[in-house]
Amino acid sequence: MNETTNISFADLGLAPDVFKVINEVGYETPSPIQAQSIPPLLAGCDLLGQAQTGTGKTAAFALPLLSRIKPKMKAPQMLVLTPTRELALQVAESMQTYARHLKNFHVLPVYGGQNYTQQLRQLARGVQVVVGTPGRVQDHLNRGTLKLDKVISVVIDEADEMLKMGFIEEVEQILDFAPEDRQTALFSATMPNEVLSVARKHLKDPVEIRIKSKTSTVEKISQHFWQVKGLHKLDALTRILEAEEIDGMIIFVRTKVATVELAEKLEARGFSSAALNGDMTQMLREKTVDRLKDGSLDIVVATDVAARGLDVPRISHVVNYDIPHDIEAYIHRIGRTGRAGREGKAILFVAPRERRMLSAIERATKQPIKAMALPSRKDITDRRIGLFKEQIAEAMESQDLEFFEELIDQYQSEYDVGHRKIAATLAYLLQKERPLQPDERFAEEIREERPERQQRDRGQKTDDSDMQTYRIEVGRKHGVEPGNIVGAISNEGKINSRSIGRIRLFDHFSLVDLPKDLSSEILHKLKTVWVCDEQLQISVDSGSAAGKNERTGKRRSFGKGKFSSGNKFQPSSGKKPFGKRSGKKKK
Q1: Which residue, 20, 303, 304, 524, is the most exposed by fewest CB within 10 angstroms?
Q2: DSSP assignment, residue 569?
C-alpha cells in the first residue's frame, strides 16, 4: 500500500471517545503508518505492517482497536504481545492515555519479574486490554488465570525482536488460545522468513503496509539530548537560552495551546518569542516568520504542522521541548536548522520513559545524539560578561563619547574618585536590571541535580513528628534518582516539593518521607504515577520482612530535611539575551 497524504484524523472514523484524545495528546495529522493502518483495523481486517520503532505504530493499532472495545464488558478483548517489559509498559501507558474518556476501562501490563498477586488481583477485577511479554502471558494461560475467549483482536508488536529473543514459538502457542475469528495485526521492522511464516499461518488475507523511514539528516547539525530530571523543563530551557550563542531558534511542542503558553512564559523571562500554530491566520503566520527572518524576533514556539516548509537561514538552534511522536517528525524538526551551509544545533528534552524513542531515533538516523549537561551558573555569568564587553566595545567604536569623557573628568575632580571606581559604578548601574552574576537562587540547581549535597545546603529541617515514611515500588535497579521522585510526587500529587523529606534508595524500592496529613485522594493518584517505567504503588512503609535484607544492605540516603524548589534565575523582562554579535573588540 502506498503512503497516504493529506488525511486528517477526523477522516478516519475513530470512536468519538477515542477521537477526543487526539488533540489532547498533540497529534495534528496522522503519520503514514497511522493513516494506512487505522481504516483497515477499524473495519476488522487483519494487517501485516512493516515499520520501524518510532513511526507512530502504537497509535496506529491502539486508536482503531480501542474504538472497537466495549468497556462495559469486564473481560480481555484485546491482547498485545511485546518482546520486552519496557515496551509492554510503554504500550500499556499509551493505551491508558488513548482510552482516558472510555468509562470503566482498564489495561493490564503483564511481564516476568512482576508479582503474580498484583496481576491476579487486576485480572479478577476485570480488564479490557492485556499487554504483555509472551512468557508471562503463556504462564497465565496455562494457569487458567487469563482467558482469551472474548478477545476480538490480537497485536504482535516487533515480531522480528520476538524472533531474535526466541519467543516466536510461544507467540504461536498463545495465538492458539484466541478465537479463530479474531482480528490479528502483526508489526515488524524487518520481515525475515520466520516472521512471514507466522503471518501466513495466523493472518487471514491481511492488508499489507510498508513504511520506509526517512533517515537523512543534515551533517552540519550537532545533536544533543538532556534527560529531564529534577529541574523543570522551562528552567532548563532558560539556562540554555542564557548560555548558548544563539542567532535564531525554533522550539517544538506538541499542542497549539502549548505554543502560546510557552511563548508567553519566555516573553515574561525577557526573551523575544512568539507562537506559530495552525490556529493563526495565514497573514499572522507570515508576519511571524518575517520577523524571525529579519531578526526582530529570536524564538518561535511551533507545532510540527505549523513549521512545515519553514526555511529561515538564521535559525541556529532547534529545541525539541516535547519529544516528537515519531522519527519522521524529529528529522523534519531538526532540518529547520543547518540551512544554507551553516552549522546548526538540535537539542532534545527526554524524560526517562522516553529513552526508547531516543534509541529509535539514533538507530534510524545512524547518528549518535550526545548527552549534554545544562549550563552552570558560571557559564551564564561568563556569557553575560562576554556580551557586556561586546556592548562596551561596540559603543566605543560607534559613538561620540567626548561629552561623557568630560563629564567623568569633572566628576573625578569634584569628588576625588578614581576613574576605575567611576567606571565600576557606571557598569553596576547599567547591569542592575539584569545582573551579570545570576541571583543566588540560581544555585538551587545544585540541590536538584546533586542530591548528595542537599543536606549540606539546606538550612531548614523537617519536623519528624509531622512526617510519615512511605514505600514506593521503584529503586536503583530501575534507574531512579531522587529528582525523579521529587518531580513525580510534587507534580502529580500537587505536593510542594519543600514538603518532601528524606529519600532513601534501595535496589527494588525506595522510601520517602511525606506529610502525615496526605489525603486518600492524593495517595490513590500517586499509586498509578509512573517513574522510570514503574508505577509508584505508594503505601505506608511497614518495615516488612520482604524488604529487610535490602534495608540492612548498602543504600543511599539523601538528607532529612526539605527539598527546595524555589524559583530558578529569571532574567528581567524586556532585555534581549542574545542576538547578532556585531561588535568588535578594540585593540
Answers
A1: 524
A2: P
Check for a shared fold between 9-210 and 445-557.
no
CB atoms within 10 A of CB 291: 15
Q: How confident is the model at residue 543 (pLDDT cuts 50, 70, 90)?
A: low
The order of strands in the sheet holding 510-515 is 539-540, 467-472, 510-515, 503-505, 556-557
**All three cell numbers of 273:** 518569542
pLDDT at 452: 36
Q: Spell out the residues 6+ positions from residue 480 whose beta carbon is closer than 8 angstroms to its own.
A: 474, 505, 510, 531, 532, 534
Which residue in this structure is represented by grid cell 561568563?
Answer: 382
Phi, psi of 210 (to 5 degrees): -130, 125
Q: Which long-range contacts (CB under 8 A, 24 or more apart) does 13-19 make?
A: 13/38, 13/39, 13/42, 14/38, 14/42, 14/63, 14/64, 14/67, 15/66, 15/67, 15/68, 17/99, 17/101, 17/102, 18/63, 18/66, 18/67, 18/98, 18/99, 18/101, 18/102
Count of residues in the chain: 587
- In the block, cell 486518600 appears at 520
CB neighbour list of residue 3: distance below 8 Å, 6 or more residues apart: 32, 35, 36, 211
Supply the pLDDT for residue 388. Answer: 85
Query: Was domain 445-557 assigned CATH 1.10.287.470?
Result: no
Q: Where exactly are the structural domains of the chain?
A: 9-210, 221-375, 445-557
CB–CB of 96/25 below 8 Å?
Answer: no
pLDDT band, very low/low/confident/very high, at 231 (cuts 50, 70, 90) = low
pLDDT at 489 over 50: yes
Query: If pLDDT is split at 50, 70 and 90, which confidence band does 560 have?
Result: very low
Q: Which helix (H) or strand (E) holds 426?
A: helix 419-431
* CATH of 221-375 given 3.30.360.10, 3.40.50.300, 3.90.1210.10, 3.40.605.10: 3.40.50.300
Residue position matching grid coordinates 487469563: 146
Averaged pLDDT for residues 436-445: 56
The pLDDT of 330-351, averaged and rounded, is 86
List of E strands, 341-416: 344-350, 370-371
Task: Please check the confidence at residue 313 and state whether its pLDDT lies above 50.
Answer: yes
Strand 129-132 versus strand 107-110 pairing type: parallel
Average pLDDT over residues 284-298: 90
What residues are paired with 224 via a beta bridge? 347, 370
Q: Is the pLDDT of residue 262 over 70?
A: yes
Contact of 46 with 184, CB cutoff 8 Å: yes
Beta strands at 315-320 and 183-188: parallel, antiparallel or unpaired = unpaired
- 3.40.50.920, 3.40.1280.10, 3.40.30.10, 3.40.50.300: CATH of 9-210: 3.40.50.300
Instruction: Write out the three cell numbers for 29.
Output: 495529522
Q: Are strands 370-371 and 221-227 parallel, antiparallel or unpaired?
A: parallel
* Cell numbers for 460: 531548614
Quote the pLDDT of residue 8. Answer: 87
β-pair partners for 503: 512
Q: Is 178 helix (H, G, I), strand (E, B) or coil?
A: coil
Q: Residue 444 — pLDDT band, cuts 50, 70, 90?
A: very low
